[in-house]
Amino acid sequence: MGYKVDFTQDKEKKLDQVSERIKKLREEIVSTIPEIFLDRAILITESYEETVGCPYIYRRAKALEKILLNMEICINNRELIVGSYAGKPRGCQLFPEYDMKFVIDELDEFEHRKADKFVISEENKAIAKTIYEKWKGNTITDQALALFPPEAADGSNNLIYLLTCLGSGIGHTLVNYELVLQKGLNGILREVDELEKKLDINDPEYTDKLIYYKSVKIVCHAAGKFAERFSLLALEESKRTLDPTRKAELLKISKICEKVPMQPASSFWEALQSFWFIHLILHLESNGHSVSPGRFDQYMYPYYEKESDKIFCEELIHSLWLKFNEINKVRNRTSSIVFGGYPMFQNIVVGGQTVTGESAVNELSHLCLEATAKVHLPQPSLSIRWFYGCPEDFIRHAVEVVSYGTGMPAMFNDEVVIPNMLQLGHTIEEARNYAIIGCTEMNVPHNSEPFLTGGFLNILKILELTIFNGFDPVSQMQYEFKTGDVENFKTFEDFVEAYYTQLSYYLKLHVTCDNILDSLHGKLCPTPFQSMLIGDCLLNGKTNLEGGARHNTTTLQLVGMANVADSLATIKKLIYEDKDLTWDRLKTALKNNYENDEILRQRIINSVPKYGNDDDYVDLLGRDVLYHCCNEAKKYRSPRNGIYNIAIYTLATNVLFASKVGATPDGRKMGTVLADGGVSCSHGMDKNGLTSLFNSVVKIDPYKPIGSALLNVRLSPSSFNETDFQKTVDVIKAYFMRKGQHVQFNVFDVNTLRDAQKHPEKYPLLMVRVAGFSVLFTTIETLLQEDIIHRTQHSSH
Q: 389: left (phi > 0), else alpha (psi -120 to 50), else beta?
C-alpha cells in the first residue's frame, strides 16, 4: 500500500475531498436540531398491552416486531445507505420501558438546553405524558429504585458514584455482524430450527429455551420485513424522481433491500447495507449506547477487495459514516453533561493482528482512516491497534488523521491488551481478535456480554469523606459509615488504610446496585435480537442479559485518580514527613475552600510532587489506589456469574463531579474540574513534558487486567509539521514499546476555540476529543469546553 503523508494537506482541503452528495448530507446533519419522535414509544406501549401475562422475552420480541413493521421510515434524498432511526435524520425515539419520568420532568427544557438540544411538538408532549402514566411504576428505573439499599440514594444524589444504566439499556456490545453478512438471517433461522429440534423435554429449561427460540424467529422475520419496507419505499421514490441517475440508484437500493439482511451479501454495497440494518435494529431494540461495529476492516474487506470501482466504494464508506451520525439518544440533564455532544460511542477499530498473529492492516484500514478525516464528524469513533511489526505507513497515516483535529483515531497497544485478554480467560485467537467498545473498553467480539457501564466511582469524593470521617462538607450530610478521626492516625499508612476501607465500602455498595440493575435488565428487558448475534446464546437458549454469552464481566470506572494521587502526596509529605502541617489546619483550609489560606494552597501546588512528572513519590500512590480497587472488585460476581473488573476513565464525569467535591488536598478548589481522561494528570500539573507524562502512566502494571486506562494528551499543532512529524510518530511508538496501553490526542489552537465560543455559527465542523469520544465543540456545555481548553499542551519535540 505504501501510504505517504501529504504535508500540503490541511483540514479544509480534506473536508473538500468528498462528493457533492456527501457535502450536502453532512451539512444537513450538522445544521439539524434533533427532533423527538414517539412512534416507538407508542408502539411498544400498545404491544405490551397486547401481551400482558406473556413471558418477557416473548413480549420484547413482539414489541420489536410491531416497531419494525409500523414505525415511520424515510429515505433521505441522495443517500446510498438507507435505514432510518426516526422520521427525520438525527431524530430520536423514546424508550419508556427503561425510564419516562425524566422525559416528563424535562419535557419543556429539551429545546432550551445549552447543549444536546432536542425539539418536540406540543402534540407529542401531550402523548408523552399519557405514555408515562401507563408505564409509571413499571420501568426498570422504578423497579431498581425500589430495590436499592436505603443508603444508595444518598451516594448517588451526592455523586459518590454514578449509575449509568439506570434509565437506559446496557448496550456496549460487539455482535457478530460477519455472521449475517456470510449467512444472512435466513441462515440463523435455520440454525434456530435445528436447535429447537434438539431440545430435550427432560431439560428443566426446556420451556424457557423454546420460548427464546420462538422469540428469535419473530425478530428475525421482523428484520426482513423492515428491510422490505425500505425496498418498497425506494421503489416508490424511484417512480417519483425525475433525475435518471437518482432513479437508477433507488432501483438498485430497492433490489439490495429486497435481498439483505435475510440473504448473504455478495457485493460491498450489499454488505454495508446489511450491516446497517443490523446495526440500526440493535438501537431500536434497546437504547443502550456503545453498540460498536468492531473490526470493520476485517469482515468487510473480502467484499471491498473484489470491487473494481474503488472510488464508488469510498463514497459508500462516506455514506455509512454519515449514517452513524443519524442515530441519537435522549438523555437526562445529568447525562447530557457526562455524555455531552450527542455521542453514541459506535467504535470501529482498524489494524492490529489476525488470529494467527500476522498483520491485519489492509487497504480498507486506510480507507477508514481517510473517511474519518474527510467526512469529519464525531461518529463513528475510530480506533487503531498498534503492535510490534505494525506497518510504518499505517501508524503515520493514523497520526496524520490526528493532525486534522478529529481527536481520532484513539490508539491501542496489542502488546498490552492481548495479554490482558488472556488473563481474563480468553483464548489466544479471541485475544488477538479483540476490538474496542464505546470509548476505550477492550473486549473480544461476538462472544461476550461485558456490561461495561457499571458506573463511575468518585474516588476523590471518597477521599474527602475519609478526611472528614464520613461527613460531607458539600451536602452537609453525615454518613453512617465512618473510619475514624484523622487526627488519631499516627502514620500515613493508618490514613491510607482508612481510605481503602472507605473505598471498599462504596465499591461494594456500587456492586450491590449494579447487580440489582443487571438482574432487572435480564428479567424485564431481554434482547432476543442482540443475543442471537452473541456467541453461545443460541446454544444456551438464553439471552446475553441472562447469562447466555460465553464470557461475562462487569466493569466499574474510577474517576479522580490523579487528584487522589496528588492529595495523598500532600498528606504524606506535609503532615507525616515534614510534620509542619496539621490535620486541623488542612481541614480548616478545605472547609473554607482555601479562602483564608492561599499560602498553604500555593505551597501544595508548587512544592509537593504531582502525578504526571515521572516521580515515583506520587505516581505510585495513584497506582496503589487503582490496584486496591482492582483487588476489591475481584471479590464479587455478577448475576450472570461474571467477574468484576476496574477501568479508569471519566467521560465528562470529571466536570459533573466537580460541583459535589469540596476543596481537596491537592490544592484544587471546590467546583474545579477533576482530572480528565483516566490516567491523565490534573490540569497544568504535568510540567516536565510528554515523555515524563508517559513514564508516569507506564508505572501501572501493563499486565494487570484493567478494563481500560484512558490517556488524554493535547499536542501542539507544530508537532505535525514536516520537520517534527516523525518525532511525534516515534514518541508514540516509544510509549507503546514501554507498555503503554492507550493514548488519544487533541490538536487545536486555543484562539480558535475561544472564537468558536463567541461565534459558534462559524465553526460547524470544529471537533475536539472529550475523553473516549469526539464531539463537535459548539454542541457541548461551556464547563466542558473550558475543561478541554485548559488541558496542558505538549509537543513531541
A: left
List alpha helices for 307-443, DSSP H: 310-324, 335-338, 363-375, 392-403, 414-423, 428-432
> Does the bond joining 261 to the residue before it have cis omega, within 30 degrees of 0?
yes
Task: Calculate the alpha carbon distances from 164 to 136, 143, 677 in Å.
Answer: 20, 15, 17
Using alpha carbons, select from 92, 95, 710 the residue that is nearest to residue 452.
710
DSSP 572: I
Please give the backbone phi and psi of residue 331, each rounded to the nearest 5 degrees, phi first. Answer: -120, 155
Cβ-count burial 284-317 (b if 16+ within 10 Å, e if not) = bbbbbbbbbbbbbbbbbbebbeeeeeeeebbbbb
Strand pairing category for 471-472 and 456-458: unpaired
Question: What is residue 713's predicted lDDT score, i.e. its pLDDT?
Answer: 97
Q: Report the amino acid identity of residue 292.
A: S
Give the mean pLDDT of 672-699. Answer: 95
Task: Report the Cα–Cα distance between both ends of the chain, in Å, rounded.
Answer: 29
- Measured CA distances, 307 to 166, 264, 303 (Å): 45, 17, 7
| Statement: residue 797 has pLDDT above 80 | no
Tell me the pLDDT band of 706, cut-offs 50, 70 and 90.
confident
pTM above 0.85, yes or no: yes
Q: What is the pLDDT of residues 241-277, one digit of tens each?
A: 999 999 999 999 999 999 999 999 999 999 999 999 9
Q: Determine contact, residues 385/349, Cβ cutoff 8 Å.
A: yes
Residue 180, Cβ density class (10 Å: 0-12 exposed, 13-18 middle, ≥19 buried): buried
| CA–CA separation, 443 and 171 (whole Å) | 13
CA angle 389, 394, 396 (to 5 degrees): 110
- Residue type at position 598: E
Distance from C-alpha of 708 to C-alpha of 727, rounded to nearest angstrom: 26
Task: Kindly report whether the peptide bond that precedes residue 380 is cis, defined as omega within 30 degrees of 0.
Answer: yes
Percentage, residues of the chain above pLDDT 70 = 100
Cell representation of residue 101 = 419520568
Residue 313 · residue 87 · CB < 8 Å: no
Torsion of CA 494, 499, 505, 508, to 10 degrees: -120
Confidence of residue 754 (pLDDT cuts 50, 70, 90): very high
Length of the chain: 797
**Cα separation, 43 vs 63, whole angstroms:** 7
Where would I find the H helices in 260-309? Answer: 268-285, 296-299, 301-305
- Peptide bond before 378: cis, by omega within 30 degrees of 0? no
Instruction: Give the separation between CA 657 and CA 461, rounded to whole angstroms.
Output: 9
Contact 303, 265 (CB under 8 A): yes
Cell 429447537 maps to which residue? 196
Instruction: Give me the sign of the Cα torsion angle 529, 533, 539, 542.
Output: negative
Percent helix / strand / coil, the chain, rounded to 5: 50, 10, 40
Residues 85 and 95: beta-carbon distance below 8 Å: no
| Grid cell locating 676 | 480528565
- Distance, CA of 48 to CA of 437 (rounded, Å): 31
Helix (H) / strand (E) element for 570: namely helix 561-570
Q: Is the peptide bond before 409 cis (omega within 30 degrees of 0)?
A: yes
Q: Specify whether the CB–CB gap between 343 and 290 falls below 8 A.
A: no
